[in-house]
Amino acid sequence: MSNERPTLTTRQGHPVSDNQSLRSVGERGPATLENYQFLEKITHFDRERIPERVVHARGTGAHGYFEAYGKIGNDPAGKYTRAKVLTQTGVRTPVFVRFSTVIGSKDSPETARDPRGFAVKLKTVDGNWDLVGNNLKIFFIRDAIKFPDMIHAFKPDPVTNRQEPWRFYDFVSQSPETLHMVTWVKSPWGIPANYREMEGAGVNTYKLVNDEGVAHLVKFHWQPKQGVRNLTAAQAAEIQAQDVGHATKDLYDAIDRGDFPEWEFCVQIMADGEHPELDFDPLDDTKRWPEDRFPLLPVGRMVLDRNPDNVFAETEQSAFGTGVLVDGVDFSDDKMLQGRTLSYSDTQRYRVGPNYLQLPINAPQEKARARTNQRDAQMAYYVDDSGANKHINYEPSSLGGLQEAPKPAKDYHQWVEGHLGRYQTTQTSDDYRQAGDRYRTFEDWERDELVANVGGDLKQCPEPIQLRMVWHLWHCDEDYGRRVAEVAGIDLERAKALPPLPGKPAPHERRVGPTYTSGKQETSASVQETASAK
């Protein structure tokens, strides 16, 4: 049998020499629109399922409002941003939030070990702002071109129609950047007890821009006032035996009885720039910004106080996109953000239709009514015009119609310079360090659960995957690798003897003591109190 493998190509038959990196202007520069390989790959991926969402199919939602404090930490919010939704006080901005699981189908159990989607649509006076994130503050990968492959590996096997551990760990074992997220997901943090007692995070790095045109890098976070509660595998199994939609019921019942869940909206701020003093790239979604250096600064609060009148019309037809920003919030060169900005809205045009923004659940509030020159297409039922001259559906015109808004007095301009090519980040030491730091900061019972989950999974994997995974985990933390090897029955010495992955940098010196602090100990404490999600 020949060991020669077929060459990966595009749908046009072009050989693919780099399937790991978008084309960008320099290592940290923006991605370019002529990324044909990526566009072909991601747009096909967006259309793989209909009408169910390709990812985040199982979900529930609720209405509420957001109120800004007018400050970011101790500073006026205007120091960092000109976004009215974050600077104006005394205003209740309507919101719709959709919570979800990622990998499972529409009728999959809500006890699945899986990241949870946390998507917020803020209907501001300047139009919609969609903050599309997850419950965990990081992600598996840092380049959007890898997203379809990652989801394919995590989804059911196309032959057996089952989620197979060997497929998951095959991808993970070849992608060290995933180790941090795997450590979170395979711990109790991978099964939130419900949606109310769950954190949220924008995950991507954005920018805030003020009236002077000055930008800062920013991470967005939702901190639940109800506290955080997660489940062990045994507790999740007990709940799943009785109810596959416990989290949907929990949220609906809480709002129905007037127990409105609330989150504090916080940001982490960093000066705009490359930050060579850090051992991670702040644009890398697989890394956290240490909260002892970049603290969570309160910005406002969100309350959910109304259940949907109809699940399909509101929750299922709600559509979110990472490119839906308001003035004062801007894009960074985060490669996951740039790829998601195309993919999310493209998926909704396919899944719901090109006029999905005319649906009431997605339309901006009346003060920011949509007025465009876009016309027709499937399911159009009104025209986005100004009511002035209906003959004019173009711009500029001397006969009426729409006109451009006034430009900001000082806009943000980013200087971009670099060689166009495919780049992988060179700041990779934290691929292992942050995963190891997270392992060491877990409580003992969380560590025990993590080791049991990963070790149990690896028992079902082929030996090459077992050995490589233990090699990775040992480089994150010696105790982490040793304990998983013991549970899975893997020869630790054989694993340690493996060479580094071809084409991947060798791990930096292993950390065997705490190096990461969040400013406060994060725990799943209340899982010890009860096996049910109240």
Automatic annotation (TrEMBL):
<dbReference type="InterPro" id="IPR024711">
    <property type="entry name" value="Catalase_clade1/3"/>
</dbReference>
<keyword id="KW-0408">Iron</keyword>
<keyword id="KW-0376">Hydrogen peroxide</keyword>
<dbReference type="InterPro" id="IPR011614">
    <property type="entry name" value="Catalase_core"/>
</dbReference>
<keyword id="KW-0479">Metal-binding</keyword>
<dbReference type="Pfam" id="PF00199">
    <property type="entry name" value="Catalase"/>
</dbReference>
<dbReference type="InterPro" id="IPR024708">
    <property type="entry name" value="Catalase_AS"/>
</dbReference>
<feature type="compositionally biased region" description="Polar residues">
    <location>
        <begin position="515"/>
        <end position="534"/>
    </location>
</feature>
<feature type="domain" description="Catalase core">
    <location>
        <begin position="9"/>
        <end position="403"/>
    </location>
</feature>
<protein>
    <recommendedName>
        <fullName>Catalase</fullName>
        <ecNumber>1.11.1.6</ecNumber>
    </recommendedName>
</protein>
<comment type="function">
    <text>Decomposes hydrogen peroxide into water and oxygen; serves to protect cells from the toxic effects of hydrogen peroxide.</text>
</comment>
<dbReference type="Pfam" id="PF06628">
    <property type="entry name" value="Catalase-rel"/>
</dbReference>
<dbReference type="InterPro" id="IPR020835">
    <property type="entry name" value="Catalase_sf"/>
</dbReference>
<keyword id="KW-0560">Oxidoreductase</keyword>
<dbReference type="InterPro" id="IPR010582">
    <property type="entry name" value="Catalase_immune_responsive"/>
</dbReference>
<feature type="region of interest" description="Disordered">
    <location>
        <begin position="497"/>
        <end position="534"/>
    </location>
</feature>
<keyword id="KW-0575">Peroxidase</keyword>
<keyword id="KW-0349">Heme</keyword>
<comment type="similarity">
    <text>Belongs to the catalase family.</text>
</comment>
<feature type="compositionally biased region" description="Polar residues">
    <location>
        <begin position="1"/>
        <end position="23"/>
    </location>
</feature>
<dbReference type="InterPro" id="IPR018028">
    <property type="entry name" value="Catalase"/>
</dbReference>
<feature type="region of interest" description="Disordered">
    <location>
        <begin position="1"/>
        <end position="29"/>
    </location>
</feature>
